[in-house]
User: Fold this.
Amino acid sequence: MKDIFSIRNMSQERIVFALAVLLFVVAGATLRGFLDAGNLVAIVRSVSVLGILAVGMALVIIGRGIDLSAVAIMAMTVAWYLQMLDRGTSGGLALVLAVAGVLAIGSINGFLIAYADVPAIFATLASGSFVYGFARSQLITQDATPVPPDHWIEQLGRFRLADIPVEVFFFAGVAFLAFLFLRFAKWGRYVYLMGDNFLAARNMGIPVRPMIVLRYVISALIAASAGVLTASSLHSINIRVVNSNLLYDIILVVVIGGVGLSGGRGGMRNVIVGALLIGIMQNAMTIIDISNIYQNLIKSTILLAAIVVDSLLNPRDEQTAQQGDI
Amino acid sequence: MKLKKMLAAVALTMLGGLAVNVAAMAQDDPGPAAYEQALKGKRVAMVPMAVFDLSQGWAAYLKREVEGWGGTFETRDPNWDTAAAAQAITDLISADPKPDVLVVHSPDLNSFSKLLKKAQAAGIYVVLVDNPMNYPADAFVGSDWDRLGQLEAEAVVKGCGENSSKKIGLVQGDAANASSIYQYNGIMKVLDKYPDFKVVAKPFSNWDPTTSRNVTATMLQQNPDICGIIDFWDGDATGATAAIKDAKLDGKVFLVTTGGGEMVDCKALEDGTFGAVVMTEVQNQSRDMNAVIKFLLQSGQPPGTSKTYIYTLERATTKADLKPTTCWDVKAVQAGNF
Assistant:
């Protein structure tokens, strides 16, 4: 414990946390209005949906996988749900169909990876494209679908507690539940074991295949809930988000916080630290009015720096070298 | 003798008149035949940036017109992916039969320059729509974005009024798209004429509503007394709208944006979330496209000869200007009811 701050123990998470604190202090000291309560809430809120998606992604990545279909699931299921309402499908039926759709995609992802042995990166890349293409061509007629007036999604978006919007609570709640699952549930511990050494986990009798399916189903559900929150705050969902950088931003949050892409490493703390760093950075850059080209440059430079420092301080060992990254 | 001559003259005149009449009766108007010959079976292909309200509107109106004069119409959907759009254009150039006219909605000023040159060399007329390029196509049909920006700025100055804080925020699109760059230039030109109006922040949304919400929230947090915001596209202005509502500033911030005049624009003007919308009038734009396509196909000039700019007439529409016919309905257009 005493050498927690020594250089040898500077894990990526701590580096990024220190960076976030440093940025926060500098921005707080130099930028007018940065430390206002309203702005602090805005910072957390701006990364809440991203953070929720990152929680789902982290659960998958820790178990040595990746879910590239998350953004497609998030946008298309909510757009489909809203479109059904718009066409007069009853609210209950539409909800059941949408949730069934999400469960189906998650299960298909998990099945392809666990039972058909398709690498996660290809299985979810393909299923994400399929979800987008199928929904866009068969189910959804326009790119932006509005939330009907006074629908529960809109009411959800109006919810505030002490002026803090609902997304923030939801992010905190999802992260906390995921933390409890990973830390205290037996199946949560299995996620680490499988991520660390898949063969050993299987040999010791862990039901690895159902576990994989479960993870992708959870990831799909979390993604869909992020879509609901997006729609609740914007009063519509725009499926164009599927073609945005959002997916990379999710992976960025997970990786920058220190969850290793090779699996078995990291937790919810990393996700929160990663999300906060991105939130503080983006907020400060918006206040300074930096053009978005430079914003992307700065963001990617910081990510590169974090990765380089991490690989210097935590060199790859024999085991990770054998396993390789995803 | 004299009488004979006179009679002959009269007879000749009558004969002549008869002949002229006969000829006139036999001769049809040459227009329709030439029109049909030039247009029938001609292929028009459109590559928009993606399928969204504007391009759905153009495609529906154009398809009806083109099929109306005996041509064929197809669209390719690159789904916001510049590489996929380039691939679609490449495919079309080498297709057999290749299109006679290519309608392109370019994502930026330069990406397609070489491809469009190739298309013209292959005998295909190129019509650019909505987003201009640094490439002289046969025709450009769309907004004069500089002028559009000026209209937005005039609207926001008027919406703020003399007794306001005179602080304005911009939510730009991105730094590469012509519509964003020229819109900005136009806005700044007008604001130069009103020196007491100041732009206090000008973040980018990347055309994404969530980003628009986040940057607008920050902007309002820093400058709660902003009197007007110009968001560069109605597609992401829902985000700015949400941020204004969250800051409990609805009714206090005059939001100006631009869009294709789909029903969402009219609804937002009606309920006061948009203060003014500069509409790009999709129906008229589509009619302009159709007219210039028909002209090019009949002109006999090889592709690449003319450089025509056809700018849409635009106005800043406010709630007071709304008429039942102001907006069009993408759902009706899709269902063929228009």
In short: Strands of chain A lie at 144-146, 160-161, 164-165, 236-238. Chain A touches chain B at residues 32-33, 36, 38-39, 42, 45-46, 49, 136, 141-144, 146, 157, 165, 230, 233-236, 238, 240-241, 243-245, 282-283, 286-287, 289, 291-293, 295 (CB under 8 Å). Residues 179 and 268 of chain A are 6 Å apart (CA to CA). The first strand of chain A starts at residue 144 and ends at 146.
